[in-house]
Write a structure and sequence with these properties.
The protein has 13 helices and 21 strands. With about 425 residues, the chain is of the alpha+beta class. The strands form five sheets. Strands 1, 4, 5, 6, 8, 9, 10, 11 and 12 form a nine-stranded mixed β-sheet that branches. The two termini are about 25 Å apart.
Length: about 425
Amino acid sequence: MVDFRPFRGVRYDRSAGSLADLICPPYDVISAGEEQELLARNPHNMVRLELAELSGPPPADRYERAAAEFVRMKQEGALKQDEAASYYLLRQRFVVGGVQRERLGLLGALRLEELGGAVLPHEDTAAGPKEDRLALMQATSANFSPIMMLFRDADGRVAQVTSRVAATNPDADFVVEGQGYTIWVISDPEDVKTVHDALESQPTYIADGHHRYETAVGYGKKVGGGTDTVLTCLISFDDPGLLILPYYRVVHGLDDQKLGEMRNLLTTLFTAIPAVDPAPAELDAAVANLAQDQVALGIIERGKAPLLLTPADDTVPAPDHSLTPLEQAKSVEANVLQELLFRPVMGDAFPENVAYVHDPVEAARMVDSGEAQIAFFIKGVPADVFEVVVGAGIRLPRKSTYFHPKLPSGLVINPLD
């Protein structure tokens, strides 16, 4: 049973400045240079607490410094805790492919439980990021960045509340780098009860934030006493703005023999035709627009024309919604590449020779520069396939999904002390 609770969030006071200059991306997409750019916008920027992704061993005072800054920002009034336990409704407006979209998310405190019951993961995790996030959580006793999860609003009760609230005056409305953010605070007892009760019988699916969720579970076991929640943003599967984009697979560091084996296997498994337009964005669009009842790939090799690939025979399984969840998982392009190409050629150590890139231009650049050998363009996982496969307890290959846009850090903090 899901227990998605309202909570007394810690938020920026208006005296701290514009939220446009105070929020930041999640840690795993912030470089050291971007960290300094964010702090130049406002010294109170959330990156001071969220911290950028590590590129090596952590500095000795990394986490203690963040904890001290958190205390200072509260003492000086830059951050204040809300009086009433609330949910926080977030609308994100963004443009993809020239189309204006918007997506609603509901921020709250999700009661922690082991994965696989009411909270379903869709990929495995690595140890390094969990160690970093656990150390930060232990030092600060807070969640600064929300985990993104999906849910099914079976009877529309949550949508009734959020639609009505979204028609009222917001608590904040601002734009950062072309993306719009609007926030409403939901503290009315009847609305809070409606949302909480509607979600009790629904499972939640982790979209983005596996490392942070597992870290929070470990932290709760270690610390105990009121630390059994994690900051979460729930997004409905039915939201028209829900967008699942792919991570492209970029192969590098293969010797001539392995590279030859990969090319031969591609020739056996797929039929190739030249792409009409060699531009990365157009190749990406061509792959996405191919019929959804077949696997489709695009490839870029240095000095060669980009190609579109479709299965040569039934060795590559075709998508079929009538099949079992396990069979549907096999036709996800990330799984096809992993199990029919990468593992047969490179063995279980294939991740050492595969980079995951969500920008098609960057994937092409890596090949053109000689940094990589082949870039594979794939389609995003359809939301209905994601729900069926993950709902059956099946995990997809790592980096199978890129949920766009990311959720920012700094809109609201979940205090754990």
